[in-house]
């Protein structure tokens, strides 16, 4: 840590959203020339805190100090004017514009005074400089939409450089970068550090954090959970502070009982993929099987094709070859409707877009896929629907003031419970859970794990897609690792480790 | 609920202004006129309202009304068909038009606005192609049965109310059941709010969207038949002109959101009642006059929209607090 006083400091920040206290008195500081890593599980409040530092949100309470002076950020423009730049987790680029146009969007070089002619030559020259600094070999006039995801991420970073940041905040910048691009980013960060920029860095990749962070601040449930100086940073310490409890208690998978059973009494295969290829998928066909009662983790980097595979199984992407069998019988699933009828159910990753009708009530959301059970002659029995919703809410412990509450006003954890609850009334055969605990608070997370364990025990085959390695390690009986759409390998529980998964996920040979 | 209350107050206020300001408005005859116009716009508003709830839009309603009216008259005067089969053919044709729109929107993923905008031009042209002059029906001489149909569907009275109002009441009850009690309505609301989520819930979203287009066009076709029966004449180039916008205005005043997912059948009917009242006030008033009628309608719609936005924000803030 540098000896200078902190450049940016936050004290006792509180922020509430409907149904959830996102930040409950968080403090942190970052000095000039320092790289601060901010850690925490999904829903711990990292992104909210960063958005407050960058003027996106106003805090409910607490103060911000810049150069030791209290500041009140009136918005993103205000923060930018003071040199605080945030690179969002989601890309904010105009795909239809060129690289240079994106780099200087809202900040264009003009000539001709009030006429406002764009000085394209100048902007292209400056763009070339910036691109070189981040190691991107693309033309400034190229359309951003035509570039791969990783390069687009680097353009966001180049844009931040152009804004002469004093404090640069990065929210998971490496989630879509390749190994080489990540290394390049670290060089850029080292350069910035030397020139006295304060960097706040959010990441889930603990290896990276160990590599670049001068100091680590860990959040848990919207509070400071702990802080580690450079020489204290270790994988184990970071995980302890993030989870805040014994991992064995947190993941309630009853592996022990399963492992004790001899192979001969293994449950029958429920889902089987036989040489499956799908639209937009890899050339190499995918084959695997999942038994009833099993939780099979599906790991891989972002963009490895896990969500695409789940979409193919759920009838959202046509199969181009191969066969899917449910309980031994070949099925033809051409739409989600077919999948639901066959008992193959999906809880999608993006629940706000695909999993829920946010404006509608808890009862209506739980009822939506189950109207066939709750109607007679196509007329809905509201009484039966209400009973079903009440039962599901009790079973899943959904915290909602009333069944008529719009589901969009619930917290992330409770929303996810509604997504899962929709399917529980239908006696699923195969349940595909895509990032089941993303944006879910720790308490609800543990409840969702318990529910998964309980469902598996009833003989459902569960495929759990997850980028959260702790979760994959904690919950899976077996892990399938995808790399660039291909099945890179399969890891039984006995040889399961973070290293083994990352080895396969990054293109390493099967062990 | 607040939205329904809002439009109810609006209708009540307009009615009060109409009655108090203009003594001749209080006559029984005038009420008959208002009721018949309500019946007419009401049918179209219900159709497009259900479609808007499901996230769609139909700009071709007016042209389809015109084509329906002209085709209905053409079959009876030129081809000497009896009125019932002629009406049946018109309605069946409208079903096909709705199916056509629905298929284009779902299978080819075309934008509803664009598809039905093309329809607006095409059906108007077809109406003019079918007959190059105004179709007049001196019902008594050409088609005695048509006069009977007119009495049954439009002009006859039971319990003092014109039959077209009874017809509207019947369609309203039907639509209340479909929209608010059956699975079909539930699916339309879900699709209107979030089509993807509905699809992921295993709903055959395309099929339900097509059904909404068919409903809307069918009601427009019925509107065409009613048009000719009511006015006894239909000019190919102008019959039903702008009716799609009246219908959409009624639906929006009644609480439908053009983003889909919102609106009630009762609201749509009340919204449909706003336009006849407004236009009558404009016509009777010496200060406004019929010239400014459109300005008043537009202003009323804008005010209702702004009020709705403010109320929504307020109630959302309250729900969060």
Notable features of this structure?
heterodimer; A: 511 residues; alpha/beta; Rossmann fold; 3 domains; six-stranded mixed beta sheet; globular; B: 321 residues; mainly alpha; 14 helices; 4 strands; 2% strand
Give the CA-based shape of chain A. globular
- What is the makeup of the main sheet of chain B? 2 strands, antiparallel
**How far is the first residue's CA from the last residue's CA of chain B?**
20 Å
Helix content of chain A: 25-40%
Q: Which range does the strand content of chain B fall in? A: under 5%
Flag low-confidence runs of chain A: none
CATH class of the largest domain in chain A: Alpha Beta
How do the strands line up in the largest sheet of chain A?
A: 6-9-10-3-11-12
Query: Class by helix and strand content of chain A?
Result: alpha/beta
CATH topology of the largest domain in chain A: Rossmann fold
Sheet with the most strands of chain A?
Answer: 6 strands, mixed
Number of strands of chain B: 4
Total individual domains of chain A: 3
Q: How many domains make up the coordinates of chain B?
A: 1
Task: Report on the architecture of this protein.
The complex is a heterodimer of chains A (511) and B (321). The mean pLDDT of chain A is 85. Chain A is an alpha/beta fold and 511 residues long. Chain A is globular. By secondary structure, chain B is mainly alpha-helical. Chain B has one domain. Chain B contains 14 helices and 4 strands. A two-stranded antiparallel sheet of chain B has the order 1-4. In chain B, α2 (28-53) crosses α13 and α13 (265-284) packs antiparallel against α14. The A-B interface holds A 18, 314, 335-337, 339-341, 346, 348, 353-360, 364, 367-369, 371-372, 375, 378-380, 405-406, 409, 422 and B 177, 181-184, 186-187, 189-190, 193-194, 196-204, 261-262, 319-320.
